[in-house]
Amino acid sequence: MKVISILGSTGSIGTQTVDIVVKQGDIRVLGLTANQNIDLLEEQIHQVHPEVVAVMDEKKAKELKKRVGSKVKVLSGMDGLIQVATLDQVEMVVTAVVGMIGIKPTVAAIKASKDIALANKETLVTAGHLIMDLIKQYGVQLYPVDSEHSAIFQCLKGENIREVHKILLTASGGPFRGKTTTELQHMTVKDALNHPNWSMGQKITIDSATMMNKGLEVIEAKWLFNLKPSQVEVVIHPQSIIHSMVEYKDGSVMAQLDVPDMRTPIQYALNHPHRLPNDVPRLDLTKVAQLTFEKPDMETFKGLKLAYEALQKSGSILTVLNAANERAVDKFLKQQIGFLEIYDVIAFAMDHHKNIQHPTLQQIFDAEQQTYEVIEKKWMSERNE
Ligand code: NAD
Ligand code: MG
Q: Which of 32, 175, 373, 375 is most exposed, with minimal Cβ within 10 Å?
């Protein structure tokens, strides 16, 4: 029986992972973590019977402890997350937290020789060079959960990575595909949360609307598959049926197709190299009828352009891109800034950063803090002048 921990079990990826595990019946979940949602975490405790759980929020952790008594060990804070990620018997850690908060537990898990099923793309975007080195150093496996990267991973099987010409990373285009800058100006949180194909957490749904999600995925692909930025091309594919493609040197293109449902890539990461039955709806190509493709509009959806720019420079600017986006999305969700201001915040933070090549973990966390300060102290005050 495979033994796993799930970091961020109460989120969109986390709950779908629990769903797969429960239905599969042959995976033991030893640890779970959540930020604040102890009601759902408590439900999950009854569902999968973990030995240890961690809640980021100290108060909520105390409350949960009262509720569950001695049934399960309740930890809190970052130390708690790290303990869940490094439990002795655990073989694989599913990283389904959102944001670069995932860096520390992911690093700890790799150093404790755990395989990683990675959904948490912000960790690879900001610390990709360090994570990939650690993966090699500790001889563990990293399985992508992100549907595009899972597709690429599958299209690369049995092939030689040196014979890859480029990756065709597909993007739905999000809820605002085809809109002009003038139209985007007035888009509300509700509009942006209305994704046509995928049901996901709030942050990634906003990232899909800005196309920053695809930008982060270009960077994620670069680190996962050791590619040059010019080898990752984004193709808009509104039906989200082809999850990505690999073009080889001879011009041959391999694609992976499926319905847009994250349970399939999650299940594949959990069980690799095996493919198990599940109750995800089947792809019916005659119903889909048409698969269409377009070039991305990087002038309107600047998120993608900013991501390529950061990737070209590489180094700590990648942390700035990501941290500025995390803060800007948070502000947009709280209705403190408008939709297009998300791009302004990121561009401003990137302009105010002195780039460091190959940053250490500490330099990554410093760049993150500096980014928040630049946004709060400089950008916000200039905006409110
Ligand atoms: P979500 O917001 O639904 O869930 C996030 C989880 O992380 C929750 O369990 C939450 O409790 C926890 N969390 C949030 N902030 C935390 C903090 N400060 N400290 C500790 N825990 C915290 O997010 P999601 O949509 O499930 O996405 C998770 C990750 O997977 C993201 O990196 C996202 O980009 C990636 N991803 C998601 C999807 C999807 O379909 N949802 C697809 C591909 C990749
Ligand atoms: Mg994706």
A: 373
73 carries a ligand binding annotation: no
Pure H helices in 160-301: 181-184, 189-192, 202-210, 212-225, 263-271, 285-288
CB distance 6 to 96 below 8 Å? yes
Q: Residue 220 and residue 167: Cα distance in Å, rounded?
A: 12
Give how far the C-alpha of residue 79 lies from the chain's centroid of Cα atoms, to the nearest Å. 22
pLDDT, tens only, 328-374: 999 999 999 999 999 999 999 999 999 999 999 999 999 999 999 99
| Cross-strand partners of 117 | 94, 143
Taking the C-alpha atoms of residue 157 and residue 359, their distance in angstroms, rounded to an integer, is 31
CA distance 324 to 306: 11
pLDDT, tens digit, 9 for 90 and up, residues 31-41:
999 999 999 99
Confidence of residue 98 (pLDDT cuts 50, 70, 90): very high
In 3D, which of 48, 58, 36, 39 has the Cα closest to residue 6? 48
Which one, of 30, 45, 4, 46, lies nearest residue 267 by Cα?
4
Pocket test for ligand 1, best of 204, 280, 330 (most atoms within 8 A of CB): 204
Cβ < 5 A residues, ion ligand 2:
146-148
- pLDDT at residue 110 greater than cutoff 90: yes
- DSSP for 11-42 reads SHHHHHHHHHHHHH--EEEEEEEESS-HHHHH
Question: Could you tell me the distance, in angstroms and rounded to a whole number, from the CA of residue 217 to the centre of ligand 2?
Answer: 7
